[in-house]
Structure formats: structure tokens, C-alpha cells
């Protein structure tokens, strides 16, 4: 594999990793810690994410349990979740917060699929940006006589092939997530 491809592979990988993170936070009807772990909460005169303040577990497929390490932050965490606009209703149950996942309606599911498709398109755009950066790097190398014109076209083909592989991966991830969202 050419050095240009080796340099751009981490950028492609980062796009896929970011896509997984974004899709993990989409509601599918099942409880998952990814739904709340990145929600910001005011704590200790700073803004922190819930994952840095509490353990988050799934009690069952419809219930999340948030157990703050500092029990004095329980009201702050509850308020943070309510204010986040994610459509979840936290309930303080002693020293933990319980979140019951509301059932997904058909409209909710379609809305989630639409949001998911936006994330997929963002990932494809990022992949194209990485491809264009790689192509510019190859053109610069040709201009500086580091590679021949034939090598340039071979590299363009390899870059396009790599971009297609990553875009196919994005499509595959999207199909799986859509199936997960639409499953009742």
C-alpha cells in the first residue's frame, strides 16, 4: 500500500468510528447507555458528561439505571437529562435514576431513520473529503516529480477503491441500524 493511502486510512477509520458513535446514540426502542452517556451536566462548577459522573447500566431492554458516584449530583443529572431534549423522562429512585424507554411509535421510528440517513450522508461526505485530500497530495507529488503520471493514475484508482470500500461499509452499517430501528 502506498504511503498516501497509509496516511489517509486513519481518517477513513475515524469516519466509521464517529458514525458508530453517532448511531449508537439513536433511540431504537432498546435501552443503551449510549443514549445518555454524552449528555452534559452541571457538576462541581463545571460542565461534565454523565459517563464521567456515574455508572450507566441497562437493567432490562427497556430500563436504564444511572448510579451517580457522588449521590449529591443526582438532581443535577436528572435535570441534565430532562434539559437535553432527548425525549427521556428520568425518575429518581432513592440513590439511582431510572429511565424507562417509552415505546417507539411508527412516526418516531421513521424520524429516527431519517436522522440516521443524515448521519450516513455526513459520513459519505467526510469520506469524499478524505479522498480529495489524498488526490491533492498525489497531484502535488506528481508536480514535484516524486511520482510519474502512470503512478498518479494508479494511485487515483487505489484511492477511489478505498473510498468505495469505506462507503460500502457506511451503507452496510446503515442497513443494519435501519433494520434495528424499524424492528418492533
TrEMBL record:
Question: Care to name a GO molecular-function term for this sequence?
Answer: ribosomal large subunit binding
Q: Which UniProt keywords apply?
A: Coiled coil, Cytoplasm, Protein biosynthesis
Q: List each copy of the Ribosome recycling factor domain by range.
A: 19-182
Q: Which GO terms describe its cellular component?
A: cytoplasm
InterPro entries (alphabetical): Ribosome_recyc_fac, Ribosome_recyc_fac_dom, RRF_sf
Say what the protein does: Responsible for the release of ribosomes from messenger RNA at the termination of protein biosynthesis. May increase the efficiency of translation by recycling ribosomes from one round of translation to another.
* Name of this chain's protein: Ribosome-recycling factor
Amino acid at each position: 500500500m502506498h504511503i498516501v493511502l497509509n496516511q489517509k486510512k486513519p481518517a477513513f477509520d475515524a469516519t466509521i468510528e464517529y458514525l458508530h458513535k453517532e448511531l449508537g446514540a439513536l433511540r431504537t426502542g432498546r435501552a443503551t447507555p449510549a443514549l445518555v452517556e454524552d449528555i452534559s451536566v452541571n457538576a462541581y462548577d463545571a460542565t461534565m458528561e454523565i459517563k464521567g459522573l456515574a455508572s450507566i447500566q441497562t437493567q432490562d431492554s427497556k430500563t436504564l439505571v444511572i448510579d451517580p458516584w457522588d449521590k449529591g449530583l443526582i438532581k443535577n443529572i436528572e435535570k441534565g437529562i430532562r434539559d437535553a431534549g432527548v425525549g427521556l423522562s428520568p425518575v429518581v429512585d432513592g440513590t439511582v435514576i431510572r429511565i424507562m424507554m417509552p415505546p417507539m411509535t411508527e412516526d418516531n421510528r421513521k424520524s429516527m431513520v431519517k436522522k440516521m440517513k443524515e448521519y450516513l450522508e455526513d459520513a459519505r461526505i467526510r469520506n469524499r473529503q478524505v479522498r480529495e485530500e489524498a488526490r491533492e497530495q498525489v497531484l502535488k507529488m506528481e508536480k514535484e516529480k516524486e511520482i510519474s503520471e502512470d503512478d498518479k493514475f494508479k494511485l487515483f484508482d487505489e484511492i477511489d477503491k478505498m473510498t468505495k470500500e469505506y462507503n460500502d461499509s457506511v451503507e452496510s452499517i446503515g442497513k443494519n441500524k435501519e433494520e434495528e430501528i424499524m424492528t418492533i
